[in-house]
Amino acid sequence: MNLSFNDWAQIALYFAVLFLAVKPLGLYMAKIYEGERTFLSSKMGWLERGLYKLCGINAQEEMGWKAYSVHVMVFSTFTLLALYALLRLQTHLPLNPAGMGKITPDLAFNTAASFTTNTNWQAYGGESTMSYFSQMVGLTLQNFVSAAVGMAVLVAFIRGFVRKTAKTIGNFWVDMTRSVIYILLPLSLVFAVILTSQGVVQTFRPYVEAHLTAATMGSDHKPVAVQTIAVGPAASQIAIKQLGTNGGGFFNVNSAHPFENPTALSNFLEMLAILLIPAALCYTFGYMIRDTRQGWAILIAMTVILLPLMIFCASQERGGNPRLTQIAAIDQSSGNMEGKETRFGVVNSAIWAAATTAASNGSVNSMHDSYTPLGGMAPLLMIQFSEVIFGGVGCGLYGMIVYVLLTVFIAGLMVGRTPEYLGKKVQSFEIKMASIAILVPLVATLGGAAIAVLTAAGKAGAFNPGAQGFSEILYAFSSAGNNNGSAFAGLNANTPFYNTALGIAMLFSRFWCMLPVLAIAGALAAKKSTPVSAGTLPTHTPLFVSLLVGVVVLVGVLTYVPALALGPIAEHFNMLKHLHS
Amino acid sequence: MYMQSLKISALLFIFLTLLLGIAYPAVVTVIAQGIFPHQAQGSLIERGGKVVGSKLIGQDFSAPKYFWGRLSATSPQPYNAAASGGSNFGVNNPALLEAAKARVVALQRADPGNKAAIPVDLVTASGSGLDPDISPAAAHYQIARVAKARGMRYDDVKSIVDRYTQGRFLGILGEPVVNVLELNLALDEYAHAHQGKP
Q1: Which of A64, A103, A246, A529 could form a disulfide with A423 if both were Cys (CB 3.0 to 4.6 A apart)?
Q2: Which residue of B has its CA nearest to A202?
Q3: Contact between A157 and A424 (Cβ < 8 Å)
Q4: φ, ψ of residue A214 in degrees (nearest 5)
Q5: Distance between CA atoms of A142 and A395, rounded to whole angstroms?
Q6: Domain limits of chain A?
Q7: Which residue of B lies nearest to A249 if distances are taken between CA atoms?
């Protein structure tokens, strides 16, 4: 292995700190959702109660899965339309000191779908498209609520296991409001201030004009003596985009931008924030079902998939670009640095790339398009594991639990017993719903990519020649079809075709996973609990963790290997061919 | 149920917009401007009352007497801090190889005697196009050229480079870097202070 001691140390430190935070935060979140008092109850309780009062929410009301789903859908649709309207009206709204212009209907639709579904795919460059008002009021709000909706649905799903012969799975408004008030908002507030200490900007002033020491040359060969430096209220948005697995950057290049991620410390904290809540929710789950071993087992399964791919990615990038070694004068000991920032180097870029695609975060601190073919395949594959390896806040874990149901079902078939999980029989209806939740993202991804490569408008988007161009298209639909949001950013995505197609893929995947999950929750809650017997498959053992990992990997790999062979793998051989000619 | 849901959605949207879209960023701004005003405004560097750049945003240097930074793929000019961007070239893209070769030629032409291998960060574009740093190796590669162009001793330039070299955070996190803009400004100030002296 070509990784240095420091590379290993940084990877180890990352996981060590992450795992230390799992129990305290997970326990805290469980208490919030169970309505217990916490240290923030006295400080923020008035805000929660005030919101209920102002909005006419009856916090005592309990909802069945159908009512819960209706509220999820109505709320999500409303915020989607509101964001669309706000973006379209940007030029008529305040706080636009840099004079950003009109946003086209297709881009506004794509962006609204993207932020409502917690995908945060960005077909636009932040500092060259969005006013401060659009970023702050439109996008920051959506960062919070799309994350909170995912967390609410997870909690409702967990109640499906906790409750016995019950008709209801909780109150959507309460679950969502609590996620915002007690979890996302306080964490973001603290994190945003820490980020500004490192140099992340937070200001309402217009862009800064700097008078250059040495004039530079524009593409029109006229000297440019002034550097216009984009600033803005970035820290408040970056904090929530990292914590809420949103990933939509304030600036075009996301967390590669020095104002979005200025130092090694800011980078470490932003990387932690990516996986923090998804990891801790595993503990929340275990606590709420009163068997924390189940939560740890899932967290370990997730880590078992993430860690090897992360190391693989780092190792590929550490090896450098073989094509550049053909130019004798270059010393590539620091690895493949195209598209990477000096302060992060290859190892921090690779940790980030793997973490952001494991979680459905999608923020980047380096350009994935410029990775080596196999190094870039690692993040692509992480996305293609259906965003259940950590995944989005809430939605990652409910997706993973759907895979757990599938695993106990397969295991049950092997031994000829009715499968059960956490005392609930897993029957035909649950498996049908689980299949929908698993298959819809696969169809959205491969179907979308197939349509794109069959149409002129789709093919026109590819930037790099050859197989890499196909990888860009495959990555885009994988990202949208699994609500990730990162990109092989060479793709020219701000076109009516891609804005529309990717927008539809995002909406499809998000809600056709969420609704079956709520249906399963309702069905499970209605069941009585079956006592554990000698024939029950224990679901916290290394054996079960291996089975679960096997099912997730198998579904992902079987689905995507043909497509991957045409993209990154073909590009890898393409590269080797040039080396030997 | 649908009407009630719609009503709550609309009200919740309005009040959460006030809370998360307006109050939250405003509170962060007030705290940030109060405790870290310099950072919150962009870590700007001023000389003689004029903003000459930001510590965190790289600038394009191509004269032999300045240290050069990373390649920048922003348009229409490099280091355009109003439109960040990477090259997005795949490893096999001929344009990537051309850009690297052209940079090697430019570096060697500016410093004909230098036969050392060129650190890769000097021939590749950063992700942001605004990378303020280069590796210490990339700075050391350029010391002889800068010293010659400025008529300075090698060791004097090297001591300035060392002063602007920053190690890993706590010895572990990130990579060691040299801030190119700060380094070049320091060299100009050195020249200013030593004007007319041998």
Answers
A1: A529
A2: B40
A3: no
A4: -125, 120
A5: 16
A6: 5-210+228-579
A7: B84
3-state secondary structure string across A533-567: CCCCCCCCCHHHHHHHHHHHHHHHHHHHHHHHHHH
Q: Which residues of B touch A465 (CB under 8 A)?
A: 92-94
Collapsing DSSP states into helix, strand and coil, what is residue A377?
helix
Please check whether residue B11 touches A, CB under 8 A: yes
The single-letter code of the amino acid at A435 is: S
Q: Which of A14, A343, A372, A494 has the most B C-beta neighbours within 10 Å, making it the best mutation to test the interface with B? A: A343
Q: Which residue has the tokens 């991957």?
A: A564
Q: What stretch of H or E contains A437?
A: helix A428-454
Please give the Cα distance from A350 to A3 (Å, whole number).
12
Q: Computed from CA positions of residues A488, A493, A498, A500, in that sequence, does the dihedral angle turn out positive or negative? A: positive
CA distance A298 to chain B (A): 29
Instruction: Assign B197 a pLDDT band (cuts: 50, 70, 90).
Output: low
Of B183, B153, B188, B192, the C-alpha closest to B67 is B183
3-state helix, strand, coil in chain A (%, to 5): 65, 5, 30
pTM: 0.96
- What is the torsional sign of CA A535, A536, A538, A544? positive
Smallest Cβ distance to A209: which of B51, B56, B131? B51
User: Residue B125 pairs with which residues in a beta bridge?
Assistant: B71
CB B144 within 8 A of CB B112: no
Residue with token string 């590269």: A575
Q: Give per-residue pLDDT as tens, A424-439.
A: 999 999 999 999 999 9
Residue A534 has pLDDT above 90, yes or no: no
- Chain centroid to Cα B23, Å, comes to 32
Alpha helices, DSSP H only, in A179-263? Answer: 185-198, 235-243
Residue with tokens 């609500």: A483
What secondary structure letter does DSSP report for A165? S
Does the CB of A575 have a partner CB in chain B at under 8 Å?
A: yes
Task: Choose among B15, B96, B128: nearest Cβ to A338.
Answer: B96
Q: What is the pLDDT of residues A298-333, one digit of tens each?
A: 999 999 999 999 999 999 999 999 999 888 789 999
Give the residue ranges of DSSP H helices in A34-104.
41-55, 65-88
SS3 call for B178 = strand
**CA–CA distance, A166 with A522 (Å, rounded to integer):** 8
Query: Which amino acid makes up residue A396?
Result: G
User: Which residues have CB under 8 Å from A249's CB, separation 6+?
Assistant: A122, A126, A238, A241, A255, A257, A260, A363
Alpha-carbon gap, residue A440 to A222, rounded angstroms: 52
pLDDT bin (cut points 50, 70, 90) of residue A581 is: low
| Shortest CA gap B67–chain A (Å) | 12
Q: Cis (ω within 30 of 0) for the bond into B76? A: yes
Locate A59 and state its tokens: 């916090």
Neighbours of A413 (CB within 10 A): 10
With CA atoms as reference, report the closest residue to A89 among A124, A138, A125. Answer: A138
- What count of residues does chain A have? 581
Residue B88 token pair: 């997005």
Q: How many Å apart are CA A197 and CA B112, to the nearest integer?
A: 43
